[in-house]
Every structure is written in structure tokens, then in C-alpha cells.
UniProtKB/TrEMBL annotation:
This is Thiopurine S-methyltransferase. SUPFAM superfamilies: S-adenosyl-L-methionine-dependent methyltransferases. The keyword GTP-binding does not apply. InterPro entries: SAM-dependent_MTases_sf, TPMT. It comes from Maribacter litoralis.
């Protein structure tokens, strides 16, 4: 088992999942409620227990896909959603995954990577490669200072820092402090919509 897969699998085994709120986050739910074309291909990478995917699927977005490096949250998701297509569930390293999507939902996945230039640049480049022309990357990034602690995941950042990595590959449609975060995350999230260049 690769190091990253082992790391996240151990966190799920030990219920060390403080980021897991147990339901779809309000900003992503309200963004999804504005989408009208239910045939679009959607990917949620680093999906974890994938409450947002469950919400989208039950709302009729039949081409929703989830991706996680650990099998444990995918198994839990399948127990909750036995009708969800198995072929839309992917256990893979994000950087080794391929496909073409209209929309990628970002649920602070960026903030799970050790915050070195190499990882963050690779994230932006690979996200762009997974999107169709005019495809969008939309969702949440944590908005709190990045510390020097390389073990304290999720990692923080700022609008300026994220934009530095995303701008070579994406045009910014909107990227602002999130007004509808859940109470524990008020003031700590940015909501962004980006279109692939």
C-alpha cells in the first residue's frame, strides 16, 4: 500500500476524520441547487464519505463520480447508497486518475496535500487535465494561515496563494470568502468557481 493510501486509510480506521461533518456542506449543496443540466459529468476527488455526491445523485445527477485513495470511505458510501453505480466509484491516487468531466467539485481537497510547490502546482495542472473545454472547478478552499507544521492536515492557505497555483490553468469566475459556511467554519472558507483555460 502506498504511503498516502496508508495514511488516509489509517485515519479512516481510527475515525480521525475531523473534517467529516456528516452531511453535504451548505455552500456546495446550494451551488448544486443552481445547476440545471443533470446529465453533466461530475467528479468529486478526495471524496471521503462523499455526502455531496450522495446529495447530487439523489437530486438526479446521474453522472456523478467519486474518487478517493482509500477504499474505506468508498465502502461506507456504497453501504449508504447501494444503487450508486459501481463504475462511478474510483479508488485511485488523484494524480494517476484520468477522465474528462464538465465539473469538478472541490471540497477542501487541495488542502489535504503537503503544501509544497511541487504538490500544489501538480494539483492545478492535473485538475485542468481532467476537465473538458469550458469545464469548471468549483467549491471550497480553507482560508486560514499556513503553518510550518507539515503533519497538521488539512493545511491552510489564502486566496492569493491558491490563485498563484490555479491562474496558469484556470480563469477565475468568482473566488471570495464564503458567506454560507457552516457555523464551525465561518470565516475559514473561500468559495471559488474557475473555468479551465
Amino acid at each position: 500500500m502506498k504511503e498516502e493510501e496508508l495514511y488516509w486509510t489509517e485515519r479512516y480506521k481510527n475515525n480521525n476524520t475531523g473534517w467529516d461533518i456528516g452531511y453535504p456542506s451548505t455552500p456546495i449543496k446550494e451551488y448544486a441547487d443552481q445547476l440545471t443540466d443533470k446529465s453533466i459529468q461530475i467528479l468529486i476527488p478526495g471524496a471521503g464519505n462523499a455526502y455531496e455526491a450522495e446529495y447530487l445523485w439523489k437530486a438526479g445527477f446521474v453522472n456523478t463520480h467519486i474518487l478517493d485513495i482509500s477504499i474505506i470511505p468508498l465502502q461506507e458510501f456504497k453501504k449508504r447508497n447501494p444503487d450508486f453505480p459501481k463504475e462511478n466509484m474510483h479508488q485511485s491516487d488523484f494524480f494517476e486518475f484520468s477522465g474528462q468531466f464538465d465539473l469538478i467539485i472541490e471540497q477542501t481537497f487541495f488542502c489535504s496535500f503537503v503544501p509544497i510547490d511541487e504538490n500544489r502546482s501538480a494539483y492545478a495542472k492535473h485538475m485542468a487535465s481532467l476537465l473538458k473545454p469550458k469545464g469548471k472547478l468549483a467549491g471550497l478552499w480553507f482560508n486560514f494561515p499556513l503553518t510550518n507544521d507539515m503533519e497538521k492536515r488539512p493545511f491552510g492557505g489564502s486566496k492569493e496563494l491558491y490563485t498563484k497555483y490555479l491562474s496558469p490553468y484556470f480563469k477565475t469566475i468568482t473566488f471570495d470568502p464564503c458567506y454560507n459556511s457552516i457555523a464551525p467554519r465561518q470565516g475559514k472558507e473561500l468559495f471559488g468557481i474557475f473555468e479551465v483555460r
